[in-house]
Write a structure and sequence with these properties.
Tetrahydropterin Synthase, Chain A; single chain; disordered C terminus; alpha+beta; 8-stranded mixed sheet; 2 domains; globular
């Protein structure tokens, strides 16, 4: 290697080290409805560079319960105060390996996936999974999905985002779904396996306003005709 090449490599290494020295490490914490717990530290050149970054701890990291290590959470950084990065819940998901381990011969798996709107206008997508103790009929599966939908939508209407997220992640909502579903078919396990935040309140309100304007425009056109 020539002396010039060596000098260039040394200069690049120094530049890389200087870049890391310039970065500040921030403490990432959960929202208060998850206890404002630290879920990691992350470097950034400025607070603005952190906005929108996601952190993915497990539920075990928050609770210390090893039985919940298969539940992965997703938090999005929304703001920085000092060296603390604050977050909002952005979704959760059960590991596919864990779900595969729940499959049994001679039983059925019933899935329901649908959008919901919370009381305070957060739009989410919720995925529910039910494992039966015996093989279910098509008519039973249809009834199960309708029962799941009713429970989930009823809760979404009467709970704020913060309240609903806790019910989803910590299993309370799944327990209530289970109570209704087992009236239709014998249930071995019922869980909310995945959730995702699709839109925040501002986006939802903006969409409503656009739809209202569109409806008014259509009405005016009809009147002119």
């Amino acid at each position: 290697m020539s002396s010039k090449t060596k000098q260039a490599a040394a200069a690049a290494a120094v530049k890389t080290r200087d870049k890391w020295r310039e970065k500040v490490w921030y403490q990432v914490v959960t929202p208060d409805y998850f206890g404002s717990k630290e879920i990691g530290i992350t470097p950034a050149e400025s607070p603005d560079a952190l906005i929108g970054r996601t952190i993915e701890p497990t539920l075990y990291d928050l609770t210390g319960n090893f039985d919940l290590i298969h539940v992965k959470l997703r938090f999005k950084i929304t703001g920085v105060v000092g060296q603390q990065a604050n977050t909002i819940f952005h979704g959760h998901e059960w590991s596919s390996d864990y779900l595969r381990g729940l499959v049994r011969r001679g039983t059925s798996r019933i899935d329901w996936i649908g959008p919901i709107l919370t009381k305070d206008d957060f739009m989410m997508r919720i995925s529910v999974i039910v494992f039966t103790t015996t093989r279910s009929k098509t008519s039973q599966e249809h009834s199960v999905r309708k029962a799941i939908e009713k429970v989930i939508l009823d809760h979404a209407k009467k709970h704020t985002f913060d309240e609903l997220v806790q019910k989803v992640v910590f299993g309370e909502l799944a327990s209530e779904v289970n109570q209704e579903v087992k009236k239709i078919v014998p249930v071995r396990q019922c869980e909310i396996r995945k959730s995702k935040v699709m839109k925040g309140p501002e986006e939802v309100k903006s969409r409503r306003a656009r739809l209202r304007r569109g409806t008014k425009t259509e009405t005016l056109k009809e009147e002119e005709e």
